[in-house]
Amino acid sequence: MTSEQVANRTAEAGTAGPGASEEGYERGLGSRQVQMIAIGGAIGVGLFMGAGANIAKAGPSIILMYALAGVVIFFIMRALGELLLYRPVSGSFAEYAREFLGPFFGYVTGWTYWLMWVVTGMAELTAAAIYIHFWFPEIPQWISALVFLVVLFGVNLISVKIFGEVEFWFSMVKVTAIIGMIVIGLGVLTLGFSEAGDTASTSNLWAHGGIFPEGIGSSLMTLQGVMFAYLAVELVGVTAGESENPEKTLPKAINTLPWRIIVFYVGALTVILAVVKWTEFSEGQSPFVHAFSEIGIPLAGGIVNFVVLTAALSSCNSGMYSTGRMLRDLAANSEAPKAFGKLNSRKTPAVGITVSVVLMGIGVVLNYVVPEKAFAYVTSVATAAGIWTWMMILVSHILYRRAVKAGRLEASSFPAPGGATFSWVALAFLIFVTGMIAYDKDARVSLYVGAGWAIALAVGWQLLKARDKNLAVSQPEDRPLASNTSK
User: Fold this and answer.
1) Which DSSP string do the residues of 162-225 spell out, in sequence order?
2) High-pLDDT (> 90) share of the chain, %
3) pTM here?
4) 431 — alpha (psi -120 to 50), left (phi > 0) or beta?
């Protein structure tokens, strides 16, 4: 399918006007908002809460695990960036999988990414409701979840500008909090104030059993949790169809990823583990709350709880945004009901967002029925779905590079360093992490869920083909690939 055909099919669902993209969306996301969305995507509940369990399993070596995963994430994002500047569309990785691997892979990637954000939305609503209990324990968990669901639904339905502004301030809170924590921690290390100053030292990074106190194998087993923390960094790709100037804003957002990883993950964890020795951290506890408590910061629990609440709401907000756009892309390619392809008067895919929000409401029901287990019930599939998405980005990039080398496509204006070689390296790493998930008896449930989802998608594809005989006729090797002239 050529880029012109994609544009035509998508335009049928919404007419482009002044300030609109070729897909009919309003280009309402400015550079400031895209930059902060990209930054916020690298900071989530996986860092604020999940890092505690990873520290308990790996000790100081968890810093190396986040750094290693961060390098791979940068390879993935640069591969995505090259594709985005070749053809910036809101369907992003689903569109590239469709173009370079064929309709079936675009269909699977689109629906899988949609599922990832629906279940992540359920999880984040649950987490947000739990955090509200910190201040208001008398409020039922399901009521808090429902209120957040309705408010964020309204934000996404009004306009992309409102979404971008809300996400900007959510991300600003997270960024400010992390930087503040690092500055305070460095103050404790260098000036020695507070009770923690008596024991704070960089030697804590190796003095209690070494850098790998539980062994290298135990450290590698944390990679699955580490990769979960990086989910949503690819969200910047979904904004391509609504960015004011994607040729400038997207490369800038992607190129800042290394320093974001260095500061927010490697830097923050290094400071925390130097201030408080790793043996004092445990699963189910935020390492940031514990470190602040040791330092003696007044209201430390309430401050960090507010930040983590913001992180959860930010993720849910992003999830609603992503699901609507992905369903519209699927509808434009006859892989979802046509109703999902319609834009409302504010240029937002209201039907797709509404259906996704209704399904996220299952999380509210779980908070009513089993509030103590709701979070665990809805998180098992997110990592597996995210890994599939990243794999499709990498494979699409490898095939794109092959097409450029063969002279069938023009080169992107934002080539990835290392070219296809680094994409192969990142792909091998993701396969290794999948093996780690399969080896871990507690984590492999996500693969069982993934297998069930794959069967459902295969059945759905056969039904779609029976309805539309032309759906899967065009295969990558049989058709001319799109040029980047549509930019």
Assistant:
1) HHHHHHHHHHHHHHHHHHHHHHHHHHHHHH--SGGGGT--GGGGTTTT-SSTT-HHHHHHTHHH
2) 28
3) 0.84
4) alpha
Dihedral, CA atoms, 199, 205, 207, 211, nearest 10 degrees? 160
**What is the 8-class DSSP label of residue 89?**
-
**Tokens 């779609």, located at residue:** 464
CA distance 382 to 389: 11
| DSSP structure class, residue 159 | -
- C-alpha to C-alpha distance for 277 and 58, rounded to whole angstroms: 13
Which of 253, 257, 34 is CA-nearest to residue 165?
34
Residue 5 has pLDDT above 60, yes or no: no
pLDDT in tens, 72-112: 999 999 999 999 889 877 667 888 999 999 999 999 999 99
pLDDT of residue 68: 94
| Mean pLDDT (the chain, rounded) | 81
Place of tokens 């544009």: 7
Q: What is the DSSP secondary-structure string of 145-156? A: HHHHHHHHHHHH
Under 8 Å between Cβ of 296 and 70: no
Phi then psi dihedrals of residue 20, to 5 deg: -105, 155
Residues near 356 by Cβ (< 8 Å), separated by ≥ 6? 114, 117, 118, 121, 319, 320, 323, 324, 327
- Which tokens hold the place of 310? 């913001």
Nearest to 92 by CA among 242, 237, 244: 237
Average pLDDT, stretch 143-172? 85
CA dist 98 and 301 (Å) reads 47
Strand partners, 471: none
8 A C-beta contact, residue 289 and residue 304: yes
